[in-house]
Amino acid sequence: MDNKLELWYTENWTEDCKFSIKVNKHLHSEKTEYQQIDFFESDTFGTFFTLDGLMMVNEKDEFVYHDMISHIPLAVNPNIQRVLIIGGGDGGTAREISRYSHIEKIDMVEIDERVVRLSQQYLPITASKLDNDIRTNLYFEDGLAFVKNAESNYYDLILVDSTDPVGPGEGLFTFDFYSNCYRALSEDGILINQHESPYFDIYANEMMRAHTKIKETFPIAKVYQFHQPTYPSGHWLFGFASKKLDPIEDHKPDIWEKFNIKTKYYNSGLHKACFSLPTFVKEKLEDEGE
Ligand code: SAM
């Protein structure tokens, strides 16, 4: 009988569906004024961290999420110069955006500085560009308040790399937030938001609620999908909203390819494909969220 002690991280994807990862070490645990932060080390997913018990970022599959939040908008508007990242405390989104040398300014507004500092300590590859790119400015404040006070017509790209719409992330899924993002964006501006998931009801309802508000705020409001093994159901979405640029009609693969950005998940063929959604997802998105 092998009685070796085993440590497992488990996330409740729903009331009766759990996702577990065998853990070698619980690296850090801390409660900030915003959330519970835990870092773990595992074989299969490397080092990862959770906020309030929910998987945020791990070394093994972070490339999927950070490729898909960053490269799609740059392949539609290659002239993006001023970028605002809301959330994104692990630094993965800032890392991918900083690969575009023509981008002039990257403002990152993360409510919890401890997420940044702990990511720099335990996930140095993900957080690698947070303190060594002169274009990147870190603001440790609420993204909702930041966009309310942001200059009109200023940012060419806003990336909402937020937690789910509970706790500090709740305000980032409101009409108020989306309309301030609209105002802060330039005429060719693009908003990409963490758009939840179509599979389990708890996330599908948030997806529909967010989509309803975004499509009432932006003339163009599309959704694209990707496979994120460690997020509930593995089927995850981003929203693409803009004042006039369409993600497919205005896709510029030739220009994007010339940037010579080596990616591990995103590519020009996938750019078109990821906006073709399964029927059940399209039908849910057409529903009016409550
Ligand atoms: N990729 C992850 C996901 O999809 O769940 C999220 C990445 S990142 C860890 C999410 C960040 O959003 C967290 O660091 C959290 O502190 C931050 N956040 C939540 N609410 C916020 C707010 N109102 N303003 C700014 N940052 C916020």
Overall description:
With 290 residues, the protein is an alpha/beta fold. It has 2 domains: 7-56, Spermidine Synthase, Chain: A, domain 2; 62-286, Rossmann fold (3-Layer(aba) Sandwich). Helices cover 29% and strands 30% of the residues. It is built from 9 helices and 12 strands. It has helices at 62-76, 92-97, 113-122, 143-149, 175-184, 201-217, 253-257, 268-273, 279-286, and strands spanning 7-14, 17-31, 36-42, 47-51, 54-58, 82-87, 105-109, 136-139, 155-161, 185-194, 220-227, 235-242. It has a 7-stranded mixed beta sheet with strand order 8-7-6-9-10-12-11, with helices on both faces. Strand 11 and strand 12 (235-242) form a beta hairpin. The chain is globular. The structure holds S-adenosylmethionine. The site of S-adenosylmethionine has 26 residues, from strand 5, strand 6 and helix 4. S-adenosylmethionine is lined by residues 34, 51, 56-57, 65, 86-90, 109-112, 115, 142-144, 161-163, 168-169, 171-172, 194.
